[in-house]
Amino acid sequence: xxxxxxxxxxxxxxxxxxxxxxxxxxxxxxxxxxxxxxxxxxxxxxxxxxxxxxxxxxxxxxxxxxxxxxxxxxxxxxxxxxxxxxxxxxxxxxxxxxxxxxxxxxxxxxxxxxxxxxxxxxxxxxxxxxxxxxxxxxxxxxxxxxxxxxxxxxxxxxxxxxxxxxxxxxxxxxxxxxxxxxxxxxxxxxxxxxxxxxxxxxxxxxxxxxxxxxxxxxxxxxxxxxxxxxxxxxxxxxxxxxxxxxxxxxxxxxxxxxxxxxxxxxxxxxxxxxxxxxxxxxxxxxxxxxxxxxxxxxxxxxxxxxxxxxxxxxxxxxxxxxxxxxxxxxxxxxxxxxxxxxxxxxxxxxxxxxxxxxxxxxxxxxxxxxxxxxxxxxxxxxxxxxxxxxxxxxxxxxxxxxxxxxxxxxxxxxxxxxxxxxxxxxxxxxxxxxxxxxxxxxxxxxxxxxxxxxxxxxxxxxxxxxxxxxxxxxxxxxxxxxxxxxxxxxxxxxxxxxx
Length: 499
Ligand code: NAD
Hints:
By secondary structure, this protein is of the alpha/beta class. It folds into 2 domains: 8-264 and 479-486, 3-Layer(aba) Sandwich (Aldehyde Dehydrogenase, Chain A, domain 1), CATH 3.40.605.10; 269-458, 3-Layer(aba) Sandwich (Aldehyde Dehydrogenase, Chain A, domain 2). It has helices at 3-22, 64-80, 82-99, 101-112, 117-125, 167-180, 194-212, 226-234, 247-254, 278-290, 307-319, 327-337, 362-368, 389-392, 408-419, 433-443; strands at 60-61, 139-143, 146-154, 157-161, 184-188, 218-221, 238-244, 260-263, 269-272, 302-306, 322-324, 338-342, 349-353, 379-383, 399-405, 425-429, 447-450, 470-471, 477-478, 485-493. The strands form 5 sheets. Strands 11-14-15-10-9-16-17 form a 7-stranded parallel beta sheet, sandwiched between helices. Strands 1-6-5-4-7-8 form a 6-stranded parallel beta sheet, with helices on both faces. Helix 14 (389-392) links the parallel strand 14 (379-383) and strand 15. The protein is globular. 52% of the residues are buried. Mean pLDDT is 91; it is low at 1-46. The structure holds nicotinamide-adenine-dinucleotide. Nicotinamide-adenine-dinucleotide (NAD) is lined by residues 161-165, 189-191, 226, 229, 244-246, 248-249, 252, 263-266, 297, 394, 468-470, 472.
C-alpha cells in the first residue's frame, strides 16, 4: 500500500467514525463528494441515482431503464479513472467476496434453499482466481508501413443474467471479468436468489463509491422479472449480453437480436476405463458430484464405466463417501425426482425434473429413497441403464447413475448421447491417450478434464483460471476479461520502425 493510500484510508476511517457518532450510516459515503456526472449528454442528465428518501442507490434499481442509464454514467466515470481504477474495483470485489464469504454464503443458501454451506463459502473465497486487468495485452504490429495496435476495449454496459445455483459467485466473477475490460454491468438475477444478489451488489457499490466515487458501476434489478430482462436487452446503452442459465434463458437471449455470450446448460458425462487409477477416478467423481450438491454446470452427472472395472469402481465410490442405493430405493427416488410425460411424436416418456429436489443433500435424498445414509455421505449412486432418467436429465443433485459399458467405443457413444450436444463438459479417467483423444473428438465439449474432478477444469486443483460463466453454445469458452471487449485497431502509417 502506498503512503497516499494509507493517508486516504486513515482520513476515511476518521470521517466514518465521526459520521457514525453523528448517526449517519457509512453507506451515505459522505466522506467523498458526489462524483462529477459524465459528460455524455445521451446518458447523464435524465437519471436519478438517489432514492425518494434521498439515500443513494448503490446500484439497486427497480426498473431496467434507470439501471441501464445509471450504468452508462458509471461506465464513463470508470473510463476516466483509467486502468488503475479498474484494478482498484477488482481489488474491492475480491476482498469483499472473501471477507463476506461466510455471511454471503449463508444468506444465499437460506434464500435459494439449494447447495452446501461449505462450498457456497468456498465459491466466494475463490473469486480471487478470476483474472483481472493483467489478462489484457494489446497486440502490436510493426513493419515497413508503420505501426498498428489492436486494443481490447470496453463495450460500455453489459446486461447479465445470473442463475439461482450461484447467484453472488456469478455476479462477483462477472464483475471482475467485465470491469477488468472497462465495462459497467446491469444484472437481472434469478428471482430465487435476488435478495442475496442485492446485498452483495450494494456492498460492492458502497465500497467502490467510497474508494473511487462511482455509485452505480454494478447495477441490479431488485425485483427481477421477464419484463426487466426484456428492458435490459432492449436498452440502447447495453452493448452486450452475458447469460448464465439453462436452455430457456439462452434461447430468449439469442432471440433478442443483441450479441449474447451464453453460458448454457450441461450434463457432464464421465468415462472410466480399465487403465485408470480406479480409486483416484472414484475420488474425482465424488469430489465433483458432491460439490455444492452438484449444482455446478460442470459437475459429474453420470458415469460410464468399463465392465471389467465396474465393481471395483463402485466399491471405491463407497470408500470415498458414496452411498449405494438398491434398485427399489433408486426407483423410489426416481418417482420423487421426476414426473414422466409422453414425448412428442416419439411416444416415449420424457422425464420432467421436480425442481424442489435440486441441490438437496445426499442424506436428505437417501431418506426420500427410503434409505438411511450416514451423516457425511457425499453422494448417492446406483448401477443403472444408459436410458435412466438420472442419466438423461441435468438433475443437479449429488446423485450419480453408474452405467456399465462393454467397450470404450460404447462408453464414448453413450457419453455423447447423455451430453445432448450441449458441448459443455466431459471427463475421462484413463491412461490411454488415444482414448482421451477419441472422446475429446467425439464430444467436442468446451471443458474436457482428464484424471481429475470436474472442478479442476476451473482452476480448482487443475491449471487455469476461474469463471462461473462458461460460454458453451456461443463458443467463447471459459469467460475472461477478453470475452467482454471489442477489439479495435489503431493504425499509424509512416516509416516508424526504430530499427
Ligand atoms: P434458469 O435457466 O432457471 O435461470 C437462469 C436465469 O435465467 C435466471 O436469472 C432466470 O430468472 C432467467 N430466465 C429463465 N428463463 C428465462 C426467460 N425465458 N427469459 C428471461 N430470463 C429467464 O437456471 P438456474 O436453475 O438458475 O441455473 C441452472 C442452469 O444454469 C443449469 O442448466 C446450469 O447448467 C446452467 N448454468 C450454466 C453455467 C455455465 O457457465 N455454462 C453456469 C451456471 C449454471
